[in-house]
Specification:
It is a single chain. With 165 residues, this protein is mainly alpha-helical. 41% of the residues are buried. Helix 1 packs antiparallel against helix 2, helix 3 (40-56) runs antiparallel to helix 4 (60-77) and helix 4 packs antiparallel against helix 5. 82% of the residues lie in helices and 0% in strands. It is globular.
Amino acid sequence: MSNPNELQEKGVRLFHEHDYEAAADLFRQAQEAYTAAGQSDMAAEMMVNIGLVHRALGEHEQAAALIQQALTVFTGMGDEKRTAQALGNLGGVFAAQGDTEQATTCYRQAADTFKALGEDRLYGETLLALGDLQVRSGQVMAGAATYEAGLEKVERLTAPQKILR
């Protein structure tokens, strides 16, 4: 299987099944194929995916390094949406590391960009992540307000989110 799209899709499926090592292998293969095809944007997306595998495995430094590399590619391309997505993912890595300050900075930058782009769902999801981070770091009132603002923008809520809303 050398079609990078198929490799990516299979990798995503394996990631959701928590088969992280196999997913990472497919994402690496897809990255190589996208690079060979001159699709640097898609190769950078695979870096983010591999970074998310590292995050799921608790390998935060590797995750941050890969996502930051992809962020550099997206920023260089002027791709604001993917830049914001990478920032949001990087915020998740920093949050998992306990670096509330850097996580907050990444989430705020991502949220501001999503809002400016009119990406309501992504804006709302980022606010939910930021609100959760704020609550966990002791900023309960600010976190609740941020979370509530996020709930207003997300269409498909989980059962606990519906109760909170």
